[in-house]
Fold:
Amino acid sequence: MSSFSPGVRDAPVVPAGLIHRSLLVFVRVEASEMAALGWAWLYFFCVLSSYYVLRPIRDEIGVANGVENLPFLFVGTLTGMILFNPPFAALVSRLPRRRFIGVAYRFFLVNLIVFFVVTRWAPASAQFWIGAVFFVWVSVFNMFVVSIFWATLVDLFTREQGKRLFGFIAAGATIGAIFGSSLTAGLVGVLGAANLLLVSALLLELSVRAFGRLADAATVGEAAGRVMQTERPMGGSAWAGVTQVLGSRYLLGICAYMLLFTTLTTFLYFQQAWIVDATITDRVARTEFFAQLNLIINVIALFVQMLLTGRIVRWAGIPATLAILPAMTIVGFILVGVMPTIAVIVAFQVLRRAGEFALARPAREILFTTVSQEEKYKAKSLIDTFVYRLGDQVGAWSYTLMAALGMGIAGIAWAAVPISIVWLVNGWYIGRQQERMVKAGQK
Structure:
């Protein structure tokens, strides 16, 4: 039975109308879920549009400030995660969900306005450090706004709904990423990077408004009691996320999946950065390149999300779906080891990131539908932010060490293959573990 069941006044005029019938081509959505699905879709669209306006600017700054300095920027990002997690967890403990999500998003919105002012009027001599701080800030911003979104979703939707709907909702994020990337690619040469920060801020405010409507859509009918319970402060310690993770083999398994994923992602990111730095020297051209690359990735991801994600998750199951991206990564690094060219690396990056958005991320989020509500916001936030960026550190400094030892792109690619195999086994294991937890809960 659907988790969302609107009352008479809230029911759509034509519940089995044209829009619903059209959507059934792409997603198995019930008429009673339409409002929640639509607002969740728009919420994620705005969040990812906001981020993808910023991402090409951040990536260009990372190259312009020196590829050799990237490991230090990753250290700054991890430090930012460490500093931001305790106050965020305290906010979760003390405020109802609707309040703390609005406060967190608008905190980042104000930061964007500050960066706009500083970037526009700071002296040229300060731009290097402003760029470094902005790189770190965007990396922190991305982790938290996306983590908050998914925590909300796994709180409002059941596991069964997640298997049906999360792929389609993720398509909203992909279209948002395409939209944001297109804005930056098309306007950075006209407006300049600084003015695009205000565009990102506007999209972030729209995401807050969409979240409010999603919360309203989910507080009627049979789900009202469960949802209204979440509108009270959760309480608990600001450090609860740490103790929850350390006390759960299941959450530790998800940590391992995240750590291995980000370590390998960083290897590929560094390989791409070195090649782009060597082949594209103009800053605007580099920003346009990164925006266009993001555009291609998200177009492919969108196709898979709209037509295949829900079907793959239902037919293959969570364990197999979690193993698909590691399997692709094994093949990709083998190809880079054999042919370490820019064409192979860019193709690998495109397919791997599209696979992450379309398959691995929705499947990974479904893992959290079987944990407690406090774990969904605290432990999940810790995994999505700190553990994610810890993997960046492991990848950045491991890559730097291997490069210093003279291994080169091909050698590092071959070193990544056994790590990818461990990741595949881990993904299958935690998927099977969740299946056992679900069966145990049904007895």
